[in-house]
Write a structure and sequence with these properties.
Length: 531
């Protein structure tokens, strides 16, 4: 019995109707990006693991999809039977334990092994093996049995070999986790060919080995917009405007939450936990999801002192409007230079935003931490109101992301729009337009060869006007053709039979109202152009 076709959990297929809706999202986003002077780039689906690892924190590294090296390399790493047999074959003629030459012989044979784990194990354990076998006065068959039964199992996971060591040997590439780190790599690699400040947008899929759940997928598209090579807070202002413009066009009611990583660093400083900034921010970022009690428990598990956790409580509980929160922050962080710098940046950013006529609400959220390691300034998160779903957009300022690739002191800032979650929101709220520019606007019914020849020139003229049009490929029953048009939600159908050909006319049917009328070719094109 044939296996039922399926796809991996956390991934999705999209029908033509769904793709029309998705492309509506992508085109809306692209249109706004271009409006603000951003240009498109693309990067490969896979990157070197050296590019990806260590950029997303320990939790992020665990969610990277690693790609096995090609060929049978993985097989030789795990199943060392071939190397074991070669080892035994090479050593049999020199077997003996009365001389010290045997240990050196073992090591020389091991050095030639193509299997790194096998080789390293023998080199490290040769002396111990020789001593034990010599003491037991084993013959060669006993040695083989002993090695396979008691020594060989340890070769797979030797004491001095971690999973990371094995990873280096079986995988050198991974699927991209986001678009920001590949963008930083791109900037460094092509730094002599691009103009700074470099304003780019990128719309491509990313992959995360996360547990699939509502609104969270293992494969999903990100729509990133970044500017790199400028420290100006005007870039942050422009990003908020882009967020506002896009969600206004999509008719999604949103709130933009803003914080500053420097404020979080200042908080860590004033509670005397400077070195634990990552642990603190990762925990704080979960406050909305798991609540204060569980956040405190996680901080305790991470080794944060009870005294520090106590000092943190009033900061997490700050209330009031923007001015009141800032005033309290200036008091709490007065002893922290970096914390006060973050407060000043927030004040300047909100000063700009307050002078703009934004449709979306913007608020200061001190629990917003976004656990990623590379943010250094403003951080953003956008949520759709009236929907229980995670963020639909987020990002922040990264001052030295390119430094890890050899280009230090280049600041950037950007945000990423989550296309999958935006799609889900639009579906739930029924906000997609009824007819898209990608769908067929008119279909010609096929009555036969003569009618085909009559319709094709007019069909070509309609397409030349930029109107999506098609003709049913077979002269089959009328009901089948009309059902096809209905299922594809084609708004107009053209009928041209013997009567229409004699009169040099066409019958145009409105599929929604059912109205029909006889029109000339010119009238047909005009009606379709204006509809």
């Amino acid at each position: 019995m044939a296996q039922k076709p399926s796809i991996p959990k956390g991934t999705r297929d999209f029908s033509p109707a769904e793709m029309v809706k998705r492309n509506y999202i992508f085109e809306t986003i692209k249109e706004v990006f271009r409006l603000y002077g951003f240009q498109p780039i693309e990067t490969p689906a896979m990157e070197n693991l050296s590019t990806l690892m260590g950029k997303y924190g320990e939790e992020g590294d665990k969610l990277l999809f690693k790609i096995l090296n090609s060929g049978d390399f993985f097989e030789t790493m795990v199943d060392i039977a071939v190397d074991s047999q070669n080892f035994f074959s090479s050593i049999e003629s020199n077997f003996g334990f009365s001389t010290s030459d045997f240990e050196n012989q073992m090591k020389q044979i091991a050095i030639k092994s193509r299997n790194k784990i096998f080789k390293n194990y023998i080199l490290n354990e040769a002396s111990s093996i020789c001593k034990y076998v010599g003491e037991k006065n084993m013959n060669f068959p006993d040695f083989q049995k002993y090695f396979n039964q008691y020594r060989k199992p340890h070769i797979k996971l030797p004491k001095n070999c971690s999973s990371k060591d094995v990873l280096k040997d079986i995988s050198e590439k991974g699927l991209r986790y986001d678009l920001t780190v590949p963008f930083a790599r791109f900037v460094v690699q092509y730094q002599n060919e691009i103009t700074f400040p470099f304003k780019r947008y990128q719309i491509q899929p990313v992959w995360r080995a996360d547990r699939p759940q509502k609104g969270r997928y293992r494969e999903f598209y990100q729509c990133d917009v970044d500017v790199i090579g400028s420290n100006s807070l005007l870039n942050e202002v422009e990003l908020v405007q882009i967020i506002d413009d896009i969600f206004t066009r999509l008719k999604i009611n949103t709130v933009v939450k803003i914080n500053n990583r420097k404020i979080l660093s200042g908080i860590a400083e004033v509670i005397d936990e400077n070195s634990r900034i990552t642990d603190i921010t990762v925990a704080i970022d979960k406050l909305d999801k798991i609540g204060l009690e569980k956040v405190n428990a996680e901080l305790t598990e991470k080794g944060i002192s009870n005294e520090a956790i106590e000092k943190l409580q009033p900061i997490l509980a700050l209330k009031g409007n923007f001015a009141e929160k800032v005033e309290q922050l200036e008091t709490v962080l007065s002893a922290s230079e970096i914390g006060i710098k973050g407060v000043n940046e927030i004040k300047k950013l909100f000063g700009y935003l307050n002078n703009l006529k934004l449709n979306t609400e913007v608020e200061l959220d001190l629990t917003l931490a976004r656990g990623l390691n590379y943010y250094t300034g403003a951080i953003f998160e956008v949520k759709a109101r009236d929907f229980e779903m995670g963020s639909i957009c987020g990002g922040g300022r990264y001052d030295d992301l390119t430094g890890i690739f050899g280009l230090p002191n280049v600041s950037g800032v950007g945000v990423s729009f989550g296309a999958e979650r935006i799609y889900d929101v639009l579906v739930q709220a029924n906000l997609f337009p009824q007819h898209s520019a990608e769908t067929t606007k008119v279909m010609f019914v096929n009555f036969g060869a003569k009618e085909e020849a009559y319709c094709l020139p007019v069909l070509a003229e309609i397409r030349n006007k930029g109107i999506n049009a098609e003709i049913f490929p077979d002269s089959t029953k009328m009901q089948k053709q009309m059902n096809y048009a209905n299922k594809k939600e084609i708004p107009f159908v053209v009928l041209a039979g013997e009567t229409e050909m004699q009169n040099q006319t066409f019958t145009l049917k409105n599929m929604e109202s059912g109205e029909q009328k006889s029109v000339s070719a010119e009238e047909l094109i005009n009606i379709l152009s204006q509809s």
